[in-house]
Amino acid sequence: MNLTAGRMAIAGLAIAVTLGGCATRESVQNAQNAADAADRHAGIAQSRADEAYGVGNNALGVGNQALGVGNNALASAQQANFKIDATTNDVATLKRKVAYLESKVLPHHRKRHHYHRKVTPQQQKPNNS
Q: Each residue of 108-127: pLDDT tens digit?
């Protein structure tokens, strides 16, 4: 009797689990619809992510172009700065040469040097004539 009662309990439990685990057709359709909606949302999110990735790549390309232009401008500015330094040195050299040549070509007014004579006491006396 114990054996039969145990078997009956196990069979009852198995039937309850089997019937309780069955889903209705309507619940399966609802689950499928929810899964389809989630798939559509995932597809939309993926397309937006791809679009954002493309925009990011375009921005990166523009940034790289701007970096190239900036580097070219820097190189040009450095070359111009070097040329300015060289030109400044050349101008200073030319000014010195012009000053030298002008000093050789232009007439000079010589300063007259006044030499002071020593005055003797006799020369200091006024002549009353």
A: 666 766 677 776 767 666 65
| Whole-angstrom distance, CA of residue 55 vs CA of residue 66 | 16
- For 76, the token pair is 């040009």
Q: pLDDT tens for residues 43-60?
A: 999 999 999 999 999 999
Give the DSSP per-residue string, the chain.
-HHHHHHHHHHHHHHHHHHHT---HHHHHHHHHHHHHHHHHHHHHHHHHHHHHHHHHHHHHHHHHHHHHHHHHHHHHHHHHHHHHHHHHHHHHHHHHHHHHHHHHS--PPPPP-PPPPPPHHHHSPP--
